[in-house]
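Form 7-S
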Amino acid sequence: MKIDKTTCWYNKECCKNALEYAQGVSLTQVSNFKILKDFILLTALTNQKLKLLDIGCGSSSLQNTEVIKNNFYYTGLDIEVAIKNIAQQIHSNGNYIICDIVESTEKELEFIKSYDVLVMNAFVDVMQYPIEILTKILSCGNKYVIIHRQRTTNDKTIVKKHPSYGGQTCCSLINTGDFANLIDKNNFKIIGKKIIRKKADSDLCSFILKRM
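Output:
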């Protein structure tokens, strides 16, 4: 897969703008955070902390929420520029993995299998290759996968671009049939779904998947 590295998450200036935004807005104050929190709590055990991997962690603001502190061992994963210029600037003592999911092979991503819960908060939604990325991640998924804020459509899977943080960001719309087939192929089942916002051409949704 050829990556367009002009998109904002490979750009230090855009990461700087994203950092400034993250410092001014608490994740817990975002209107759809409750959906993410509820889905995360569905995976929590009362007597044991699980390992959670925040894929495409960005500012890594999730690690500072009570739902994570009380129930999980947190690790954030993102590309180098995002970890060094956003996450570590806000949470310098956080636990991070520098990794580009797009450029990594499935074999190189096998370490993901050691995590109980995978969280993708508006991650696949901004990827150039949503189906390919989901294929890699689900093939390594161990127990639960949470996909928060992803656009789905009854039309074909497409990727658009739009302005964001002073640059261009990809915006993926995944065909519902493609999504269902991918989940089934990797032995997952949707155990929760919330529609955050409906538009004429797509739904912005959150999903929680469990490996069967």
